[in-house]
Amino acid sequence: MASNQEEIKLFGMLASPFVSRVEIALKLKGIEYKYEEEKWGNLSETLFKYNPVYKKVPVLVHNDKPISESLVILEYIDETWKQNPILPSDAHKRALARFWSNFIDDKYMNALRKVLYTVDEKECKIYIEESEVALEFLENELKDKFFGGEDIGLVDITAVFIAFWLPIIEEVMGLKLLNIGKFPKLYKWSQDFNNHPIVKEKLPPRESLLAFYKARFAS
Amino acid sequence: MASNQEEIKLFGMLASPFVSRVEIALKLKGIEYKYEEEKWGNLSETLFKYNPVYKKVPVLVHNDKPISESLVILEYIDETWKQNPILPSDAHKRALARFWSNFIDDKYMNALRKVLYTVDEKECKIYIEESEVALEFLENELKDKFFGGEDIGLVDITAVFIAFWLPIIEEVMGLKLLNIGKFPKLYKWSQDFNNHPIVKEKLPPRESLLAFYKARFAS
């Protein structure tokens, strides 16, 4: 638990899966924090001050010291509060967890971003295939209930987008992206992850996200 | 020091700054390893087996367990062999070191890759400006002799490309990329880094790199 003298603030945005990663990790550790909601397209001066490089959420501010970039924040949280570890203790397993969480950002999230921002149908199909190649790697990597074993860990938390955001994007865009036939293990994982008591409590309301993405894709 | 029973192998390529990162880190730790040179455009079956996801160097194999991605390997090395730490011990400083080393890959290396692969002069100029914005951030971040303080650390090692590769690329392309007038601290850092006894011993021969890049840009 954080001591009384500690001040922990999270600058976030309801619709951001990157912020959701940090919220799940803090909840897993049992850490209380103050949450500041930033406005899409109209970020606060405070956020610019804390994250002048990327100018985006999430930013975790611990006793006035800001930390940006969700994966960097997750490592910080795991090193600062030791209870309920997010990373394995074995060095090689830690390396694999870092490898796969980076993979999700570099390969999967990037491919999906292209799916979302491409108007041309043919091009979009190519990016969907690219994102499916990435999912295939994750499907093969999933050996237990969670990527972290019986408990959720770094890779599971990083993959929150796949579990919770993806079905919403599917609904908005009328696409099937996490196909249960193609990725049965990943599909089951997504159900188990979303129903995990800690995760469930921290996920944003589905209807709000749906409204947000509907508005965004319409414009 | 690695014990006698340990088997440490590095799959690399002379011209790769990502491999150089791993070589410098292993040398800093005083770890002996077997080096396997991979061929540009004709990678070995062993490398494909060890890094089926990205199919590229570097791959560190420690007692038959492979680890890919240079920044993941650096963290593994630092966790496995504790002498001469690469990362600071303080959690917030560790987060900053990770932030800036990711920044070098995400912002600087990506911008520079675009400089190198763009034929159009106008477009090239835009990417050079983008790379200079990234260097400006690094210039402002450099407060001591090295990013790691008086000793080299994660950010210095990650930035080996800027110190050693960049002047070679400048020569091959006839461009000025690390301008001493614009980036005086970074320029001095690059000299200190290249002359660091550990670094100096592990950098590839300048003439070989020059020949490699000349041939590559000619084709």
Structure, explained:
- Chain A is of the alpha+beta class and 219 residues long.
- The first copy, chain A, folds into 2 domains: 8-80, Glutaredoxin (3-Layer(aba) Sandwich); 91-218, Glutathione S-transferase Yfyf (Class Pi), Chain A, domain 2, CATH 1.20.1050.10.
- Chain A has 10 helices and 4 strands.
- The first copy, chain A, has helices spanning 17-29, 45-50, 70-80, 91-117, 121-141, 154-158, 160-173, 184-195, 197-202, 206-218, and strands at 8-12, 34-37, 59-62, 65-68.
- A 4-stranded mixed beta sheet of chain A has the order 2-1-3-4, covered by helices on one side.
- In chain A, helix 4 (91-117) runs antiparallel to helix 5 (121-141), helix 7 crosses helix 8 (184-195) and helix 7 packs across helix 10.
- The first copy, chain A, is globular, with a radius of gyration of 17 Å.
- Chain A binds chain B through residues 53, 62, 65, 67-69, 71-73, 75-76, 79-80, 91-92, 94-96, 98-99, 102-103, 107, 137, and chain B through 53, 62, 65, 67-69, 71-73, 75-76, 79-80, 91-92, 94-96, 98-99, 102-103, 107, 137.
- Chains A, B: It is an enzyme of class 2 (transferase).
- Chains A, B: It comes from Trifolium subterraneum.
